[in-house]
Each structure stands twice: as C-alpha cells, then as structure tokens.
Amino acid sequence: MPHEPDPPPAKKFKPGSVFFRLERNKPGMLLPKKGNVSTPIEVQRKQLPIFQAKPQLLNQLRQLQNAIIIGETGSGKTTQIPQYLYEAGIGRLGMVAITQPRRVAAISLAGRVAEEKRTQIGKLVGYTVRFEDVTSSETKLKFMTDGMLLREAIGDPLLLKYTKSHPVHQHRRDICDHLWD
C-alpha cells in the first residue's frame, strides 16, 4: 500500500490575531475572538514590518531609477510602498503602477488601499484587469495584472503616464512591481 503524503500544515495565526482562538466545540475551526473590535487602519499600517523601514526605503527610492523590493508575505510591500511613494510626492505627476499576476489580487488589493486612503475605488486608487478598467483622471495608484501593463507598453513603450516629472530623473518610471517568491 503506498504511503500517503502528510497533509499540509495548518495555518498558524499570531496571538492577538482575530483568528487566534479555536472554537473548543469544533476542533480545527478558526473563529474570531469574542468581543474583538477591529483595529483602526492607521494602527494596522504602523504594525506592518515595512513601516519601520519607511524613511530609509523612501530615501533609497528617491536615489534609484529602478528597484526590486523583496520582503516576507504580509510585510506590506504591495499595499504600503505605493502609498509611501504617493505620500512622499514621488510619482504624483504621473501614476504609480502596481502589478499582480492575477486579476483577483489586483482588484482586492486596490480595494484595500482605497479603504486605507479613505477614497472611493476608481478615484485616487484604481485597477485595470482584462475587460475591466476602474480608473479615472484622478487615479494615481493603479493596480493591474502583469498582462495589462504589457498591453499598455505595446501602445506606449516608454510608459509615459507613469513618468515622474523631475529635473534630475526625467526618464524615471515609478512602477512598483510585485514579485512573487
């Protein structure tokens, strides 16, 4: 009889997470803690690992034409760095593109960042996936699939709408590309 592989390990939640408490009557079922009040978004943002590196990160990004940022899943790379760039004035005259390999990720991340920025989706924060463009002339942070960025590059090889107008770095592209491990 062949040996069956071990099942994948269960997701471990950190103490303090809303999913940390296990329901005793139903072993293995994860439920929110009783009486949990959601943590304000600003507090959540400051608790992300990337928040500690914000000043150094922005300083480095101002000096570089291109950057690849590698960090742990859940560290805030995809949701926070575009906001940091926008808040610091980097890319304000153009747009910051944030790519994701899947449409669901692009849409859900755009929704999260719009919530964090307290704006309606399609205004400051928008998204473009195949057959769906939820952006406007106000959009500065644009989440999109990798394929949509490639499609835009066909019509605009220099990706000029993502160009930062800066006297020293006139050809700099403010594209925050999310790389999967």
Automatic annotation (TrEMBL):
PROSITE patterns (alphabetical): HELICASE_ATP_BIND_1 (PS51192)
A single cellular component GO annotation: nucleus
Keywords from the UniProt entry: ATP-binding, Helicase, Hydrolase, Nucleotide-binding
Enzyme Commission number(s) of this protein: 3.6.4.13
Record domain Helicase ATP-binding: where: 58-181
Catalytic activity, reaction form: ATP + H2O = ADP + phosphate + H(+)
MF terms in GO: hydrolase activity; RNA helicase activity
Protein's UniProt name: RNA helicase
Native source species: Oryzias latipes
Organism classification: Eukaryota, Metazoa, Chordata, Craniata, Vertebrata
